[in-house]
């Protein structure tokens, strides 16, 4: 109820603050007998970790996951998988200046008002550091869903958009550049833009597109737990996300039915896929694709007014080492959350079969 | 797990197919001692019901709710509120032509593949008729949340957009026209557009904007059950919805942090509200606003190819009486789902206080 | 959360007060494709209904179930099954004398204090009438679990015990007498005892034993949702239940390990079965058996002191038509709850297979 | 769903095997602002830990809890409390002899059949070692419920019963002897009996009685989540438990209504309390009391037949260091589970107030 669990059958519960002893989680419901590739899990964490390139925060955290249970001789046992990631780089002094200050467009104010107390160091629980635990769980879900492919990539940074449809992209190129845009020309522009923004001490938003291939027909549960509704919730639960659309999305709202309908082929596939691989909340076997909007990071290295706990407007300037654009590091998080949603419905779909 | 329950504390479970005996639901968790205004509940149902104007389906259903339990001498008792809405206008013969046919961009195919059997009459469970039960529950939630205002309105039909920000609108005008757009000039254009589309036997998409005022600080549960994540899921669970954005939404993804941050006033309110009333997944006391995209209705009164259960492509034409644009009737559904989300978090927030 | 839902995958939510319009429920999660035998469902309801014999309440209720959804052409569709049972015999005047009185050992006082308001007619929601909805759902669960046998029977009434172990009983004899004890000699004594008690205007307690055969190995989820823990909760949720034990039960607490251990046969079965068919919370393929204790009905047709809402001790005498012993009518309820628990774990066990 | 979470609002999820790296858990839903007494938590763990006296297992584990999150400057923050307890004494070699053997009346066989794989060391997940995590969470729940007293004590060992009713006991004497029976004379007999059993290489069962005082009126949720139903489930989820009864329990099933009814005093309290402090599943303000039956530990230091994974009956003898009677160490576990149940309903009850 307190919101730290995701999923119904493949269930992740996370804990941990940005500057506490450790973050981590429990995965409950991972089937037994799954031979885990631990390197593949760490690889996903490395894609998310700070300090990996010049366009992300320069904070250093090794982000090494330690598994405490649920795995025996390399294989899942069906019991809960507990894991931790130590917080090694806890420069808490960086944050003493915000102890009594609510930074604009951060969660300082709302946490304080809701809980009456908060761990102000690095945003505490509201920090995106928590998402590292999601990446661990998502990486395991991916391994369970061996035949399903999940590809996320940067589709815009500020006003720079990757105009090509996903069908024209080579997903193997996503990791070929530090902004994780599979089109090298657009990637270069995005990188240049982020560097420029960083130099200004400013930040910028962007969007991520995610494509899921080889999803079997039948995943998703009408009426409230439609597949896209749970994907939407999953994405909106990621820090800084402001919007979600799938298939034709907001563009579809401008169209006519005669343009928008996806006509069938004889094998049940469809000629077009404005539906985004989902009908009535249930996967139809076509590619699922969706787009996620991220706002610019709120911490900027410029002077700004803030509010202190005594009700005074005070001037402050962001310190610490922050991302000028969250999108490159959010790619593995989007994939992880997509994997968790698909894993959940995939298990649920086994029940009736 | 099978997806027919919404909410954690103020919990709605619905049942019913478009052409079965009845639809209905159970509301579990409504506090005791609430004096219900039954007329206000029926009023919301009337806003959703078919046949209410010339731009919606001409099907006739009285959509009268009958309460079976949980209310004693007009007051809620804290026990579950069971209710039904009879299906009186079950022109099932209208649907015999689709018994073995999967209509394009409908849920016929996915239901058949998932369940192996389906009630094909009027879309069965996948019909938006189910949302009438949500409207009943939402109307009760609204009464529980007496001081919170929820205003949804039509913000676009096809390419016709209401350009004014919500702050410039008079919400009392929403019901002054049949398209439920509070700006009469834009409303006229929208109505004309829908009539034109209807004449073509076609359909058109649109968007709904929803504004929630007077939400106390502190609603929402980090990290997975962020207030906007649950709002997003709620909206995406409504039939035909393709996208959700709140606050700055997809536009925010183009902005810089220095432009996007909402600076504080001394009282904790903010000068701007690109955040959309939510920080870190928790309400901050400012207006919550979001936008929902609806695709065009899939049933068109034009000849289209469809697939039959033997794998043949067959020509079909929509019969029955369908909406040329779902948006006007979806307004009370959006409000109802918003009320359910807020009610849930509002109860949850009582726990710690 | 408000306690009106049972089960995780095969989920029953019930509503309804003793003297409201109707009681009923929603079964969510019943797999599609199950051809329902409606007569078998009504048969179970008839076993529970009042007025069926001279040793139960003489109240008359036809208790006819009406299904509203989830079944199409006699087959479950995988969508929620909504159903109602009308309250036809609502002699509410029988209860005006308790409007402001809290009867001893009834739930009048606790409901009033918890909710501030209560439907006092016939106990309202606290009446065992609610269990009719459980019987409907349990009857469907039984049909899903076609190869699993669930046999409950009266094993004691007051001080009269059926001394034979269940292995020596012929379960086909349970329905051969009105007290539902499969040993005719003991049954006669029990019936005589109940008649005697009834003549005194008094009531008496009893126990029910339940045996479940052919449960596959592997049902139950450690560590909190052990199979016997959920069976125990299911039984304890039935009105008037005061205790639950399975396998060796309370007797096992007096034994030594060397006496209590069940040694294996080569095929994995065990020579003895003090474990009651469950090890570590998981079924082991042996018979599951347990015993449930029911207190005497609180309503007696004798003068008793009660408390009124003004804090006065007042004399009252039970009116209405009540059961001198609940056990005979509780047999189908115990079976229904057992079926719901097994159905739930049976579905859950499909996930990993 | 996989059974490793307990509670709805005050939610504990545990992980960990007997001989893995660590056990631990996440408490989600503990209110913010609670100043924790960490010594009191460790004290409860010490009451449960092995090696504490001559009548329990001589295994040595310090069982030191480390908190990783959710506490800031000694106060709970409302965010999840993650914690671990390291497994320091992992004499795994003790268990190589059971790698391919299913011990009688242990969970080896059912885990192997359910999951296809198992961590055989010390019973893996099925070991009662997991309950240490429950004790941590229960100790925190106790601190939240500051005015509520929870007292468990040993009420029988084998055939030796403490005959006095709980009202005649001095709970401050529970910790005055190693068997945790508050009557010194009976305690001496119990201790002697356990020593004798231990000398035989055998084990023995027993019962624990638990009394909860000062519970406010109104806790518990009808109809399925009755307070005693959740207490029952909580107790039955503890390793080795075979039965649960509350109030009059199985004895109540022998009684007449005229004997069993608890008559009111003018203040709403009752003259007798056969109801055990609960009416209709809701606490009535009187003492709650219940009794829990524990079977004898299955591991005995005697030769026994067992089954190997090839289907052969093999002779085996328990090694390792085991408890001759679990009851003394189970006292804090019973209290912890009771605290978790009460905490959950206590929070839930705040919602409507």
Automatic annotation (TrEMBL), chains A, B, C, D:
Pathway: Metabolic intermediate biosynthesis; chorismate biosynthesis; chorismate from D-erythrose 4-phosphate and phosphoenolpyruvate: step 7/7. Reduced FMN (FMNH(2)). FMN binds at residues 125-127, 239-240, 280, 295-299, 321. One of its GO terms (biological process) is chorismate biosynthetic process. Transmembrane segments: none annotated. Pfam families: Chorismate_synt (PF01264). It comes from the Bacteria. Keywords: Amino-acid biosynthesis, Aromatic amino acid biosynthesis, FAD, Flavoprotein, FMN, Lyase, NADP. GO terms for molecular function: chorismate synthase activity; FMN binding. Belongs to the chorismate synthase family. Homotetramer. This reaction introduces a second double bond into the aromatic ring system. This is Chorismate synthase. The gene is aroC.
């Amino acid at each position: 109820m307190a919101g730290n669990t995701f999923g119904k059958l493949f269930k992740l519960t996370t804990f941990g603050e940005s500057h506490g002893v450790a973050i981590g989680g429990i995965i409950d419901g991972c089937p037994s007998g799954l031979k885990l590739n631990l390197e593949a899990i760490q690889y996903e964490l490395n894609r998310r970790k700070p300090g990996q390139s010049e366009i992300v925060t320069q904070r250093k955290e090794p982000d090494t996951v330690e598994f405490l249970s649920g795995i025996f001789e390399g294989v899942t046992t069906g019991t809960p998988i507990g894991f931790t990631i130590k917080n090694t780089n806890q420069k808490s002094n960086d944050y003493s200046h915000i102890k009594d200050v609510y930074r604009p467009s951060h969660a300082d104010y709302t946490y304080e008002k809701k809980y009456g107390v908060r761990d102000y160091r690095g945003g505490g629980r509201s920090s995106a550091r928590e998402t590292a635990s999601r990446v661990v769980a998502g990486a395991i879900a991916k391994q369970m869903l061996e035949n399903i492919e999940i590809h996320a990539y940067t589709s815009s940074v500020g006003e720079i958009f990757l105009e090509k449809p996903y069908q024209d992209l080579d997903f193997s190129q996503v990791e070929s550049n530090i902004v994780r845009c599979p089109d090298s020309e657009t990637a270069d522009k995005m990188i240049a833009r982020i560097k420029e923004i960083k130099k200004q001490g400013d930040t910028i938003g962007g969007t991520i597109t995610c494509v899921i291939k080889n999803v079997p027909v039948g995943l998703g549960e009408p009426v409230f737990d439609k597949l896209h509704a749970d994907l939407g919730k999953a994405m909106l639960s990621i820090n800084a996300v402001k919007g979600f659309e799938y298939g034709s999305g907001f563009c579809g709202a401008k169209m006519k039915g005669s343009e928008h309908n996806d006509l069938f082929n004889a094998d049940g596939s469809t000629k077009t896929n404005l539906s985004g691989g989902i009908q009535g909340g249930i996967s139809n076997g076509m590619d699922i694709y969706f787009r996620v909007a991220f706002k610019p990071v709120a911490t900027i290295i410029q002077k700004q007014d803030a509010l202190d706990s005594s009700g005074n407007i005070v001037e402050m300037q962001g310190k610490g080492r922050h991302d000028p654009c969250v999108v490159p590091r959010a790619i593995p998080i989007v994939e992880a959350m997509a994997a968790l949603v698909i894993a959940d419905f995939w298990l649920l779909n086994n029940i009736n079969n």
